[in-house]
Amino acid sequence: MLIRRRKGWEIPESQATPETVFLNRRRLLLGIGAAGLGAAGLAQPLRAHTAPDLYPARRNPAYEAGRALTEEKIATSYNNFYEFGSHKRIADAAQKLNVSPWQVKIDGMVAKEITIDAEELIRKMPVEERVYRLRCVEAWSMVIPWSGFPVRALVDFAQPQSGAKYLRMETFVRPKEAGGQRQFWYPWPYVEGLTMAEAANDLAFIGTGAYGKPMPKQMGAPLRLVVPWKYGFKSIKSIVRFTFTDQRPKTFWEAIGPDEYGFWANVNPEVAHPRWSQATEEVIGVGKRIPTQIYNGYGEFVADLYRDLPDEKLFM
Ligand SMILES: Nc1nc2c(c(=O)[nH]1)N[C@H]1C(S)=C(S)[C@@H](COP(=O)(O)O)O[C@H]1N2
Ligand SMILES: [Mo]
Q1: Which ligand is nearest to the CA of 81?
Q2: What is the CATH number of the domain that holds 67?
Q3: pLDDT of residue 74 exceeding 70
Q4: Residue 72: inside a domain, yes or no?
Q5: Which terminus of the chain, N or C, has less C-beta within 10 A?
Q6: 57: Cβ contacts below 8 Å, ≥ 6 apart
Q7: Closest CA to 72 of 216, 222, 217, 238
């Protein structure tokens, strides 16, 4: 689905992603025209991927999706990665991202702040494969075999202080490589966060690969979060910084549209987005819609996390 860049009010709802419609409106409010995206530029020569010998990793049979895998060529060519453009066909532009070397900072309320190369970090972690469903807030879904390690393994490695309440994650800022970051009206860098309880949950995963190979750049190489009970925008790509903090992070989408996107973003078919229903989802590559499940079908793993939070907007 290629979105032609016209004025916001001319884009039929059916052709535009909801997020794109929203952003176009915002641009108009800011008095910014709907100019085309800059050319992707020349791709860099292909660099060695991060730790290729680790893949394919052993599949953990505790996590299976109950649905057919999305075809690899679909999952690697239909992506959301606003750093490279606010549409789905960013895979070519994303090849410009230099992922090796890749410094990762672990800081904030930890025993000792460190900076470590992603490859070295991944080699210290228990890498395995898990098949997860992915449900985007735009009401589409995929099923993806991820490689990676539990967020909990990273937490154990970082040794947070007892006062830490949240894990804040941040994506790179490199407008020379990522043309979308020259769109100054977005609040770069992309930021996301989890509570410490969410980070320690069995399901919370750091993806380092997909389809038995190192992570494609367009899917968030070399490290991206995968939290399948939440809308896809929580699964932040190409992370450069993990910060343990006692302050709830303000996330990228919360900063853009606080009435539409919140901190929790748990999937719930009964809580509509202000501009569309969340009751069903389009299974990408299959051409049909299916009912959406509460917590994207992962309630047995995660529902307990939310029992004592009556005042929180858990589903936006
Ligand atoms: N840094 C960053 N991470 C991001 C995004 C983004 O634009 N930038 N998009 C999010 C959204 S909306 C979704 S649905 C998923 C898509 O992941 P995929 O392209 O690997 O399927 O990535 C999420 N992570
Ligand atoms: Mo999304």
Answers
A1: 1
A2: 3.90.420.10
A3: yes
A4: yes
A5: N
A6: 127, 128, 129, 147, 209, 212
A7: 216
For residues 280 and 290, give the distance between their C-alpha atoms in angstroms, rounded to a whole number. 5
Residue-wise pLDDT for 174-186, tens only, equals 999 999 999 999 9
- Which residue from 202, 196, 243, 205 is spatially nearest to 223, judged by alpha carbons? 205
Asked if the structure places residue 73 within a domain, the reply is yes
Split into its structural domains, the chain has a count of: 1
In Å, what is the CA distance from 162 to each residue of 114, 156, 157, 159? Answer: 18, 12, 14, 9
Q: Which of 10-14, 59-63, 224-228 has the lowest mean pLDDT?
A: 10-14
Examine residue 30 and state whether it is found in any structural domain, yes or no. Answer: no
pLDDT tens by residue, 239-290: 999 999 999 999 999 999 999 999 999 999 999 999 999 999 999 999 999 9
Residue 253 in contact with ligand 1 by CB distance below 6 A: no
**In terms of Cα–Cα distance, which of 75, 107, 132 is closest to 240?**
107
End-to-end alpha-carbon separation of the chain, Å? 25
Query: b/e per residue, 13-51, with b = 16+ CB within 10 A?
Result: eeebbbbbbbbbeebeeeeeeeeebeebeeeeeeeebbb
Q: Establish how many alpha carbons lie within 13 A of residue 235's alpha carbon, considering only the half-sphere containing its beta carbon.
A: 29
**Residue whose token pair is 């038995």:** 212
Average pLDDT on 2-25 reads 40
Nearest-CA neighbor of 222 among 155, 148, 170?
Answer: 148
Whole-number Å distance, alpha carbon 155 to ligand 1 midpoint, is: 22
Mutate to test the pocket of ligand 1, among 233, 256, 281, 296 (most ligand atoms within 8 A of CB): 233
Residue 129 structural domain? 40-299
Length of the chain: 316
